Amino acid sequence: MYEGVNASDGIGIGVARVAVEPDLSFTPHKPDDAGDEKQRYAAAVAKFIEQTNAQIERMKQTVGEEAAAIMGAHIEFAEDEGIQEMVNGSIDTGMCAEQAVSEAYDMYYNMFSNMEDELFRERAADVADVKTGLLADLLGKEVVDLSTLPENSIVVVHELTPSMTADIDKDNVAGIVTETGGRTSHSAIIARALEIPAVLSVADVTKNIKSGDMIIVDGSRGRVLVNPDDNDLTHYRAKAKQYAEEKLALEAYRGKETLTGDGEKVLLVANIGNPDDANVASEHDCEGVGLFRSEFLFMDAKELPTEDEQFAAYQKVALRMKDQPVIIRTLDVGGDKEIPYMNLQKEENPFMGYRAVRYCLANPDQYKVQLTALLRASAFGDIKIMVPLVTNIDEIRQVKALVEECKSELDARGVAYNKDIEVGTMIETPAASLIADDLAAECDFFSIGTNDLIGYTMCADRGNDKVGYLYEVYQPAVLRSLKRIIEEGNKAGIMVGMCGEAAADPLLIPVLISFGLNEFSVSAPSILRTRRIISEWTKAEADALTEKVMKLKTATEVKAMLQAAAR
Ligand code: PEP
Ligand code: MG
Q1: Between 20 and 30 A from 325 (CA), which of 227, 258, 453, 496?
Q2: Catalytic residue flag (residue 96)
């Protein structure tokens, strides 16, 4: 059994698919027989076409005709007569098939990638994919395509990048195991949104697990079992059933208001990464959106999304949520969120560098495109603008000044928007926490980003499991910071929400009720459970517990007391 970070709840039982980047290096050699070598090449082409056609058929079912059609280009580049003549010609001169394929496809790749026309440049990526597919086959290696896995697959990878997670076919993936990442890494957040059990940071799993191994992923406890015996299988099948039953019991909270035990109303909203997530969140009975991470819109694109493209995405969420609030966070680029086409320079310390609101304010023209799109979408619903990584008053004032500029420009264009749109700030830095009183006077709302706030307060990287014992919301330093932020926000009469993962922490919920948190923003699958736990605490009970908790000196003591009190 292996242990790792319990990143996404649930039990997954299935067959391992180890997705290592295949090593496609080879030593060129002179084949004995050119005819045989051409046959190897022809067989690789035939197999590639067969696999791609099967993939297209599967994609038609899962992602639709249009997306599937894109794969047609792969077939064209495998069948292309010009390329085939070139490869066969090279084999005739004494090259092995690997080298002939490599050189021919590299030539086409260079040709396409140097073209002016964007469409042709994009084809370079198709050429590279075909080369990888053919070489992998010639070398007897497997390339795992996460979008077309067989049913009950357990994906085992070194690192799950946000783009890989976007490819994952949720219906067929029963679990995820990785070698890196912490509970609040973006891979973990996406795994939870997809409701796929996941265990992260398990050392060397891509070496120790082989494709085809039977795997159990216990995402709630952070355990991975390889080729389990019958006892384990029976035990975990029963646990999976129990988990499903508990989920079903939560259905009693669907359609209900979110009230504390003594009837105090709080808002229970969802964290989303793209407009489609808004549908999922609604299906889970959210009362609005507390955090739309707009950077995923930028990460999923090949170039900066235009004002119209952004408007369409924001409008879609606004319309889906009707009159419910939708907080959209402006671009939070940098840190662990890279956007390749933005060409941001590598930095020594990216989490403390040129990112989020710092980048946006340094590129006001680009930022105004996003602010304008948000304003336009505000005519269709209750959209609010949220600014990430604020550390001082100037930043929020500058953002508000840009919003005013965008409003004037929209007036001149005769375009409708909500003139009273709210602008709020994330509180996710110790600096923002310390000046919460001043910030509250300048903002319409706060949303506490505990994922970063814990990291910056404790000087512990959220993705580094070695310092995971410091990266704890139960640390007294973090709790005092949360108390201060919520109290200052309450004093100023603005809404105080929390969109970090701690908002869904069952142990912390009574403490947050006691501090006076007004809004809990959680991943869609956590909504009903969070509603249940909120309903189990009266303010007086939560206050009594919190008073004792705030006197404790260590995170271990805090956690133990909260565990003992958990309902
Ligand atoms: C946070 O820092 O708590 C947060 C919600 O933002 P992100 O996880 O995207 O950094
Ligand atoms: Mg953050």
Answers
A1: 453
A2: no
